[in-house]
Amino acid sequence: MVPRAHMYNLSGSLLGPSPSPHGMGFRDFHPAVLATALATFIAFLGIGVVDPILPSIAKELGADHFMVMFLFTSYLLVTGLANLVAGTLATRIGSKNTMLVGIGIVAVFAGGCALVSSVESMAVLRGFWGLGNALFTTTALAIIVGVSAGNSGRAITLYEAALGFGIACGPLLGGFLGAQSWRLPFAGTSVLMLLGFVFVATTVTEPDTEGREGVRALIGTFRHTGVRTNAIVGMLYTYGFFTVLAYTPLVLEGFTTMQIGLVFFAWGLLVIVGSAVLAPRLNARFGTPEVASAALTAFAALLCLMWLVSSPMVLAGLVVTAGLACGLLNANLSTLAMGISTHSRPSASGAYNSLRFTGGAFAPIVAGYIGGNYGAALPFLLGAAVITLGLIVLLARFSAFTFATPDAVGDH
Questions:
Q1: Using the 8-state DSSP alphabet, how is residue 150 labeled?
Q2: Could you count the other beta carbons within 10 Å of the beta carbon of residue 377?
Q3: Where are the domains of the chain?
Q4: What residue ranges in 22-138 does DSSP mark as E strands?
Q5: Does the pLDDT value for residue 20 go beyond 60?
Q6: Do the Cβ atoms of 189 and 110 come closer than 8 Å?
Q7: pLDDT value at residue 236
Q8: Which end of the chain is less packed: N or C, by CB atoms within 10 Å?
C-alpha cells in the first residue's frame, strides 16, 4: 500500500509531496508561481465572461442556440489543436515568451469580438482567442511546476484554484458589464489581458530549460498507458464540463444576465473549494485516482438530475453543486498529467490539454443542436453518458495509476 503522503508514477519516481491537508501559505510559494497564478486568473476570466451574455448575443444578433454555441466550439477546438504545438514552441523560445505571445493574442482578439456584428465573425475571432489561450495554459502550468521543486502538488493546486477563480469571476464580470451591453465584457477582457501582459513581463521568471522536443515527441507521450488513459478521461470529462458551462445559460429561463453571472460565480467558487480545499485532503486519504473516480461518478449523477428537473431554479442549484466535482477533477487530472509523463513539462501539459480541450469543443455545438431539435434537457443526459464512459475508461485502466513505493525516495 502506498503512503498517501506522496505520489508516485509507474516507474516509482516521486512526483513530489502531495498537498498537506492544512494547506500552504502564500509566502511559501516562489514569487514566479504567484505571478503566474495571478496571470492564470486573469486569462481564465475570458472563458466564463461569455456565459451570461449568450442569450443577449443570440437575441440581438438573431442567432439560434446552435450558432451561438460556435463561440465556444471554435475557441475550444483551436485551443485543443494548438496545444499540439504550444509545448514545442515553449521548448524553443521559452515558456515565458510563449506565455506572453498567448496573452497578447487573447488581448487583441478579445477586443476584436467587441467590435463585430455577426456571430460568424465572432466565432472566427474566438478561434484566434483559443490559440492564445493554448499558448498560455500550456506554459503557465509548466512554469508553475518548473519553479516549484518539491512542492509541485501544492503549486498545481494553486494553479487550479486560480483557474477556477478566474472562471468564477468571469461570469460575474460578464453579467455586470453585459447588463449594459454584450460588447463590454469582451472589451473588459481585452483590457485585463493587456494588464496581465505587463504583469507577466515584469514579474515572471523563466524556469530551467528542459531541452527541445518536437510535435512527434509530444504525440509520443500518448504511448504511455497512463498518459493516454488520463488524457482520454480528461477529454470525456471536459465534454461534460462544457455542457454545463456553455449550454446551461441558454436554458436558465427567466434569469437575467446578472443572475446567470451570479449562478456561475457561485459554481466557480465551488470549483475552487473542490480543487484547493477538498482535493488535497481527499487525495491524502484515498489517493488521486480513487478520488477522480468518485468525482466522475458524482458529476455524472448531477447531470442526470439536470436532465430530470424542470425548474430553472433547481437546475441552477445543481449547476452550482457540480462545481465541487469539477474542482476535484480539474486538480486531479492535471496532477496526473504533469506527474506520469517522462517528457518535458510543456510537452506533457500540451499533450494533455490537446485532448482535454478538443473533447470540450464538441460539447457546445452538439448540445445546441440536440437541445434545439430534440429537447432542451437531453444534452445533460448525453453529458452524463459521456462522463460515465470516462469513468469506465479510468476503471478499466486503473492499474496505470497504481503507484509503487520506490526503494529510495527523492524529489523528482
A1: T
A2: 16
A3: 27-399
A4: none
A5: no
A6: yes
A7: 95
A8: N
